[in-house]
Amino acid sequence: MPNLALWRWRLSTAGIGGVALNASAELKMNLPEPVSPLTAEIFDLHMLTTTVATIIMVVVIALVAIIIFRFRRSKGAVADQSFNDSRFGTWGWMLVPIVVLAIDLSIAGPGAKTLKNVETFEEADLTLKIIGSQWKWTYDYLDQEISFVSNLNNEDLSSPGYLREVDNPVVLPTHKRIRFLHTSSDVLHNWWVPSVAPKKDAIPGYINETWAIIEKEGTYYGQCAELCGTRHAYMPIVVKAVSEQEFTQWVDKQKQQKAQQLAEASAEKEWSKAELMARGESIYNRACAACHQPTGTGIPGVFPALQGSPIATGDPAPHLDIVINGKPGTAMSAWGSQLNDLEIAAVITYERNSWGNDSGDLVQPADVKAAR
C-alpha cells in the first residue's frame, strides 16, 4: 500500500487525544485499511473527498456565522441594495463558480484515474467466480477446479463475530493478481470486501469483473452491499489471504476432500437412516435453515414450512425434483449443481423424517442419480 494511503489511514483512525484514539479504534468510523493497490487508490480518493468536503463545510459555516453575528439587525445593519452593481458583486458571480469547478476537477482527476484502474483487465494468476444467491455465496476457483458454498456461521448476538463469520471462507494467495467474476443466480447482489476489492454488482445472467492484488496476509471481512431480500444482512464474506505456499497446500487438501466425497457419493452403498439423518441435519442447518428455519416451520408468507408439508410427506419424486432443480420465480434455487448425490439424499431424508413428519422414507444416492 502506498505510504500516503497508510499515513492517511493511521491519521483517520488515530483521533485527537487518548480518548478519541480509543473511541476511533472501537467504533472504526473510517473504511478498513486497504491491502490492495486498487483499494488503496479508492481509500485515497475517499480521504481526498472527505478532506475537501470538510474544508468547504468549515469555511461555509464560519462565513455564515460571521455574517449572522456582524450584520445582524440588532446592530443596525441595513441590506446593501446595490451589491450586484458593485465590483465585488459583479466578479463574485463569476469567481465563485470557477472556484467550485476547480474543486470539482481536483476530485474528478484522481477519480477518473481510479475508475480507469478498476476497469483495467489484464492477465490474472487466479480466477475466482463468485455467484450470489439468496442468501449465500458460491465460489468457483476456475483454474483449480474447486467449488464450495459459503454460509453465515454465527448468529450469536453476544459473539464478537456476530453476523460476520462463515463456514467456508475464501482463501486467496498474496502478491498474485486475482480476477473476480461476479454473477447471481436470482436477484442483484454485491460482493464487497473493502480492504481487498471494490464493489461490483452481481447480476443474474451477466458477468461483472474486477481484480485485486492482496499485499498483506490476514483475514478480511465484507458483506453483500446490494439490498437482496429479507436476509440481506446475513450474507457475510470472509477472505483469508495466505502465502503462495499455504494456498497451494489448501488447494491440494480441497481436491483430496472433493475426490473423497465424490467417491463416497458414487459408491454402491445402502446408507442407514441414522447415517443419512446425521449427515442431512448438518447440510440442512448449513444450507436450508436460513429460509425454512431450524424447526422446519418456515416464515409464513415468505418461505413455506416443511413441517407437515405435502412436499416433505408425500411422494418423494417431487421432493427430489424441487431440491435438484429448484423452483423458478422463487428463492428456491437448484441444489443439483451444488450438492452431490449423497448430500442431496441425506438432506431429503432428514426433511422427510424430522419435526414430526416421520414418513419413514430413506432416499439413497442412487435415487438422486436416477432423478437428475
Automatic annotation (TrEMBL):
It comes from the Bacteria. Its EC number is 7.1.1.9. Residues 123-253 form the Cytochrome oxidase subunit II copper A binding domain. It catalyses: 4 Fe(II)-[cytochrome c] + O2 + 8 H(+)(in) = 4 Fe(III)-[cytochrome c] + 2 H2O + 4 H(+)(out). InterPro entries: CcO_II, CcO_II-like_C, Copper_CuA, Cupredoxin, Cyt_c-like_dom, Cyt_c-like_dom_sf, Cyt_c_oxidase_su2, Cyt_c_oxidase_su2_TM_dom. Keywords: Copper, Electron transport, Heme, Iron, Membrane, Metal-binding, Oxidoreductase, Respiratory chain, Translocase, Transmembrane, Transmembrane helix, Transport. PROSITE patterns: COX2 (PS00078), COX2_CUA (PS50857), COX2_TM (PS50999), CYTC (PS51007). GO terms for biological process: ATP synthesis coupled electron transport. Residues 275-355 form the Cytochrome c domain. GO terms for cellular component: plasma membrane. Binds a copper A center. Coiled coil: none annotated. GO terms for molecular function: copper ion binding; cytochrome-c oxidase activity; heme binding; oxidoreductase activity. Pfam families: COX2 (PF00116), COX2_TM (PF02790), Cytochrome_CBB3 (PF13442). The chain crosses the membrane at residues 49-69, 90-109. Its cofactor is Cu cation. Residues 23-119 form the Cytochrome oxidase subunit II transmembrane region profile domain. Its main location: membrane. Subunits I and II form the functional core of the enzyme complex. Electrons originating in cytochrome c are transferred via heme a and Cu(A) to the binuclear center formed by heme a3 and Cu(B). NCBIfam families: CoxB. Belongs to the cytochrome c oxidase subunit 2 family. This is Cytochrome c oxidase subunit 2. It comes from Aestuariirhabdus litorea. The lineage of its organism: Bacteria, Pseudomonadati, Pseudomonadota, Gammaproteobacteria, Oceanospirillales.
